[in-house]
Amino acid sequence: MKTHKDLDVWKDSIELVTRIYRLVSNFPKEERFGLVDQMKRAAVSIPSNIAEGAARNSQKEFFQFLHVALGSIAELETQLIISKKLGFLNDENIFEDLEKIKSKLLGLIRYLRKKRNEK
């Protein structure tokens, strides 16, 4: 791996951020400082933590940041479920895309763990 920008999971999560920003632009104005801000922060946190972890000098720190990114995925998923229940969300594919990112992130964690154990 050269940089975080070479990781498919990072690229996909950047695309997710842009989708979330477009999605929440249609939410009610009263959610601007509530659900909208929380969803934007959670979405941005995913690629940001992948990038920060990849830039660290230790694999232990990289793992920690990847797990923070997983937490942000769970947070965003919860917020999307709430948005759907409130009638704000009509993009069902976003759940599938979020699940794909989660799977790729878990795959990266497994790969790095296996690589570490082979040493």
What is the β-strand count? 0
CATH topology, what is it called? de novo design (two linked rop proteins)
Helices, by number, come to 4
Helix percent reads over 70%
Taken from the alpha-carbon principal axes, the silhouette is: elongated
Distance between the first and last residues' Cα: 17 Å
Q: What is the CA-atom radius of gyration, in angstroms?
A: 15 Å
Q: Round the mean pLDDT to the nearest integer and report it.
A: 94
Helix-strand sequence: HHHH
Multimer state: single chain
InterPro entries: 23S_rRNA-intervening_sequence, 23S_rRNA_IVS_sf
Protein name: Four helix bundle protein
Pfam families: 23S_rRNA_IVP
Search tags:
23S_rRNA-intervening_sequence, 23S_rRNA_IVS_sf, mainly alpha, single chain, 119 residues, Four helix bundle protein, de novo design (two linked rop proteins)
What does this structure look like?
By secondary structure, this protein is mostly helical. The chain has a single domain (4-118), classed as Up-down Bundle (de novo design (two linked rop proteins)). Helix content is 76%, strand content 0%. The chain has helices at 8-24, 35-55, 59-85, 93-118. The model has no long low-confidence stretch (mean pLDDT 94). It comes from marine sediment metagenome. This is Four helix bundle protein.
